[in-house]
């Protein structure tokens, strides 16, 4: 999710109320950024063969998880070997969505070790766009060069680059459209970073060059298996050497998650703005509002959980559902359906729609349980899941996609089926966590421990570094 500024975290305690108010006010006017795509777990699925490798297996030895206390205070940056390398990053678009923002994060990690990084956006709207303008200037401020997608400068950069990273399957259209007769020279140094889980991305026009690149990097085993099988069965092509790289939380996000003063201030402010009490239980879904993210099924489960509590006369605090990712300016047909359901069931007082926001920390600090209800094949990774776990929140997730590789069912959260068949199981899980305080808190602590062991920025940097070394080696040979 959106990164939190680390500077305001260290400010003097008595300035907190003012700073929190300023931060939260700013967040409510910023455009929503949702990391929608990505996931991870303890073990590699049994169906994974030698063609498929966990990034930490590249050197034939696993990365041993280290806690912050075990990490040397001056640990060498695993990406330092990229110093002075020329890296071209090609994104299919530049927006506040998961894929582009994740590629920007890689750009900043590479700039941090002295790599020369050049960014190309393949698809841009004809009219000026405030989001694109803002993100490009953010990159320019951090030393990332921005080039037009087409033209001789783009071709020259691709030919000179030590490494070319194509971001998402759709970025494959850039190869033929721009490089043309130079494609074959560039393919041996291309790392294709894939995040998609939807079937409509399996088009030959997008991925016909996929078998010939140096490697593919995918965020979860589930997604990697899906791509391997689907490309073979539907398109008759094979995947290149494929590496599974689980993501990690940014240092800025972890600073907020581990600052009890910050969390308390954020919790109090958000709850006050929503009109809920400190003891009320908040179950939140934090994703862009769309049918694929399952907000409709979540609200049905939430309503059913209220019915169960009433029927069984359970003594629990007031329950609230929070939907973060709404669009107050342009209500889609789907969101209109959500609001109509809330009105019909007369649960307006305990359902809260929150506008799109770049800053999710205030909401993670203020809620009690995260609901990850992505449908169909689920999330490729679902970064909001590990961000919630960093805030010691249990996760109620769908048993699909990368969520199964992140959430340990019964330990860090509870899983339920996708589709309408998951409505009642999710409702029961909401009631379970509402009625068992100790279980809820224990799951949250276990989730935090799992993040510290597997899903931090240095874990992700280490895993990506191993992949980049392999790709550079192939490019030279």
TrEMBL record:
<dbReference type="Pfam" id="PF00534">
    <property type="entry name" value="Glycos_transf_1"/>
</dbReference>
<dbReference type="InterPro" id="IPR001296">
    <property type="entry name" value="Glyco_trans_1"/>
</dbReference>
<keyword id="KW-0808">Transferase</keyword>
<feature type="domain" description="Glycosyl transferase family 1">
    <location>
        <begin position="268"/>
        <end position="449"/>
    </location>
</feature>
<dbReference type="GO" id="GO:0016757">
    <property type="term" value="F:glycosyltransferase activity"/>
</dbReference>
<dbReference type="Pfam" id="PF16994">
    <property type="entry name" value="Glyco_trans_4_5"/>
</dbReference>
<dbReference type="InterPro" id="IPR041693">
    <property type="entry name" value="Glyco_trans_4_5"/>
</dbReference>
<keyword id="KW-0328">Glycosyltransferase</keyword>
<protein>
    <recommendedName>
        <fullName>Glycosyl transferase family 1 domain-containing protein</fullName>
    </recommendedName>
</protein>
């Amino acid at each position: 999710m959106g990164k939190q500024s680390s500077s305001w975290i260290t400010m003097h305690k008595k300035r907190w109320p003012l700073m929190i108010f300023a931060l939260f006010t700013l967040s409510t006017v910023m455009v929503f950024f949702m990391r929608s795509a990505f996931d991870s777990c303890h073990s590699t699925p049994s169906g994974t063969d030698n063609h498929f490798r966990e990034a930490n297996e590249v050197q034939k030895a696993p990365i041993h998880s280290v806690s912050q206390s075990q990490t040397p205070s001056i640990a060498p940056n695993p990406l330092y070997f990229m110093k002075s390398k020329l890296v071209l990053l090609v994104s299919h678009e530049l927006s506040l969505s998961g894929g582009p923002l994740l590629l920007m994060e890689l750009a900043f990690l590479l700039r941090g070790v002295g790599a020369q990084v050049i960014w190309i956006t393949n698809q841009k709207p004809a009219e000026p766009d405030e989001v694109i303008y803002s993100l490009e200037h953010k990159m320019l401020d951090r030393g990332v060069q921005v080039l037009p997608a087409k033209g001789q400068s783009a071709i020259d950069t691709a030919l000179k680059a030590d490494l070319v990273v194509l971001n998402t399957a759709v970025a494959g259209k850039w190869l033929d459209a721009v490089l043309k007769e130079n494609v074959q020279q560039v393919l041996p140094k291309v790392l294709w970073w894939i995040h998609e889980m939807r079937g409509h991305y399996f088009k030959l026009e997008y991925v016909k060059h996929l078998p010939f690149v140096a490697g593919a990097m995918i965020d979860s085993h589930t997604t990697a298996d899906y791509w391997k099988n689907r490309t073979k069965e539907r398109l008759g092509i094979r995947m290149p050497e494929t590496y599974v790289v689980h993501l990690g939380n940014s240092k800025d996000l972890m600073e907020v998650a581990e600052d009890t003063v910050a969390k308390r201030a954020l919790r109090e402010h958000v709850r006050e703005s929503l009109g809920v009490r400190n003891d009320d239980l908040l179950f939140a879904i934090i994703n862009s509002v769309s049918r694929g993210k399952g907000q409709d099924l979540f609200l049905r489960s939430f309503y059913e959980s209220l019915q169960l509590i009433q029927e069984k006369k359970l003594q629990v605090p007031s329950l609230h559902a929070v939907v973060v990712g709404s669009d107050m300016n342009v209500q889609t047909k789907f969101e209109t359906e959500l609001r109509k359901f809330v009105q019909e069931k007369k649960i307006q007082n305990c359902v809260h729609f929150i506008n799109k926001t770049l800053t999710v920390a205030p909401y993670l600090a203020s809620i009690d349980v995260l609901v990850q209800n992505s449908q169909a094949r689920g999330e490729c990774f679902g970064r909001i899941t590990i961000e919630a776990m960093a805030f010691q929140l249990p996760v109620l997730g769908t048993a699909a996609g990368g969520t199964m590789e992140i959430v340990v069912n019964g330990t860090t959260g509870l899983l339920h089926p996708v589709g309408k068949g998951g409505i009642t199981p999710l409702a029961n899980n909401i009631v379970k966590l509402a009625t068992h305080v100790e279980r809820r808190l224990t799951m949250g602590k276990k989730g935090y421990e799992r993040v510290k062991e597997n899903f931090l920025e240095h874990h992700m940097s280490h895993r990506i570094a191993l992949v980049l070394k392999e790709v550079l080696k192939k490019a030279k040979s």
